[in-house]
Specification:
Order of helices and strands: HHHHHHHEEEEEHEEHEHEHEHEHE
CATH class of the largest domain: Mainly Alpha
Strand order of the largest sheet: 10-9-8-7-11-12
Family: Belongs to the globin family. Two-domain flavohemoproteins subfamily. In the C-terminal section; belongs to the flavoprotein pyridine nucleotide cytochrome reductase family.
Number of strands: 12
CATH topology of the largest domain: Globin-like
EC number: 1.14.12.17
Strand content: 15-25%
Radius of gyration: 22 Å
Pfam family, one: NAD_binding_1
Largest sheet: 6 strands, parallel
Structural class: alpha/beta
Catalytic activity: 2 nitric oxide + NADPH + 2 O2 = 2 nitrate + NADP(+) + H(+); 2 nitric oxide + NADH + 2 O2 = 2 nitrate + NAD(+) + H(+)
CATH superfamily of the largest domain: Globins
Cofactor: heme b; FAD
CATH architecture of the largest domain: Orthogonal Bundle
Length: about 400
């Protein structure tokens, strides 16, 4: 239990964190990786270079300070981060390291007096205990589940299938031949790679792109081509060097962006690019469970060359009248224009959504690049969709959609 004085001091740092949060977290990671380079085996190096991890941590620290007198408010965020931590293998012993380096960063960047550092040290202990407790439960649940396991487990690539010019699916079965843990549609796994010539292990999280209940997992990976030399090292390695018969270590499924199968509302699945992957798991689950809910499957892509699983989804719609499929191409090819194999040219917008979805009374799920998600979130909010019916997933560290 924090004292009123500690709470007062921590809350007084909220304006500082709003102003210098990213500067503090950037310095934090510099300190931590300098003193504990072994942690580079856990963290996503690309997110570090792009600044996404620093921004996400800054947002989390700011929220913790803002609600330090009522931490129950941020428990949903703690759980969301906890899923990612459990999937990556972050353990209780890492938290003292993080605390020490974070306090040092606050001291250096903000020139904070000892009173502030002491208060933050005490507050961090409470916050860390919340994370550790929640994550311990997650580790236990993952390990004790039928077919579950702790940390990483080796999987064999039993099938590699090209889905589009940029997306390839990998079908994976346990090397030990044992049972396979079920999962919730929308969840992800972490893939662990040791790439020749690289000093550190690389972990990446990929959505499971098929329904649960199979004897395999499927991930569908986009070949990432980033700016400024930030090409997706792991995605390119998977595309170019991982083949059928190879071994990939996987963590047990995690994540809280999941289909609510208890609801009877219509389901609207909106995806941009590779954001289609968790939607495939949700769509297939609804079909395999013989759900009678109306499903609106809306996908935005550059054009048909990069549109994954297009024919499969079209066939699902043909065979199941409750499924309606709509496609939006921002830059259709000449062939696309000739055969008119899409419903809208340009971008998904509210006016168009309102012509194809009869009511805002539905469960909306969306995933894709951050600008796409900001746009969709704004559109749904403008339409008056209740926050409880808006569900989204970030690929990588969480960002703000405001």
């Amino acid at each position: 239990m924090l004292s009123p004085k500690t709470i007062e001091i921590v809350k007084s740092t909220v304006p500082l964190l709003q102003e210098k949060g990213v500067e503090i977290t950037t310095r934090f990671y510099q300190i931590m990786f300098s003193e504990h380079p072994e942690l580079l085996n856990i963290f996503n190096h690309a997110n570090q270079k792009q600044g996404r991890q620093q921004q996400a941590l800054a947002n989390a620290v700011y929220a913790a300070a803002n609600y330090i007198d009522n931490l129950a408010v941020i428990i949903p965020v703690v759980k969301q981060i906890g899923h990612k931590h459990r999937s990556l293998g972050i353990k209780a012993e890492h938290y003292p390291i993080v605390g020490k380096c974070l306090l040092q960063a606050i001291k250096e960047v903000a020139d904070a007096p000892q009173e502030v550092l002491d208060a933050w040290g005490e507050a961090y202990g409470v916050i860390a205990d919340a994370f550790i407790g929640i994550e311990a439960e997650m580790y236990e649940e993952a390990a004790e589940k039928a077919g579950g396991w702790k940390d990483f487990r080796n999987f064999i690539v039993v099938k590699k299938e090209k889905e589009s010019d940029v997306i390839t699916s990998f079908y994976l079965k346990p090397e030990d031949g044992g049972a396979l843990s079920s999962f919730l549609p929308g969840q992800y796994v972490s893939v662990q790679l040791n790439i020749e010539g690289e000093t550190y292990t690389h972990n990446r999280q990929y959505s499971l792109s098929d329904a649960p209940g199979k004897d395999y997992y499927r991930i569908s990976v986009k070949r990432e081509k980033g700016a400024e030399g930030l090409d997706g090292m792991v995605s390119n390695y998977l595309h170019d060097h991982v083949n059928e018969g190879d071994i990939l270590p996987l963590s047990a499924p995690a994540g809280d962006f999941v289909l609510n199968t208890d609801s009877q509302l219509p389901v609207v699945l909106i995806s941009g690019g590779v954001g289609i992957t968790p939607m495939m798991s949700m769509l297939n689950t609804l079909i395999e469970q013989s759900s009678n809910r109306n499903v609106y499957f809306i996908h935005g892509a550059l054009n048909s060359d990069v549109h994954a699983m297009k024919d499969y989804v079209a066939n699902v719609a043909k065979e199941h009248e409750q499924v309606k499929v709509y496609t939006c191409y921002s830059n259709p090819t000449e062939q696309d224009k000739k055969v008119k194999n899409y419903d809208k040219e340009g971008y998904i917008d509210l006016a168009w959504l309102q012509t194809i979805i009869p009511s805002s009374e539905a469960d909306f799920y969306f995933c894709g690049p951050v600008p796409f998600m900001k746009h969709i979130h704004a559109a749904l909010t403008e339409w008056g969709v209740t926050p409880e019916n808006i569900h989204f997933e970030f690929f990588g560290p969480a960002a703000s959609l405001q």
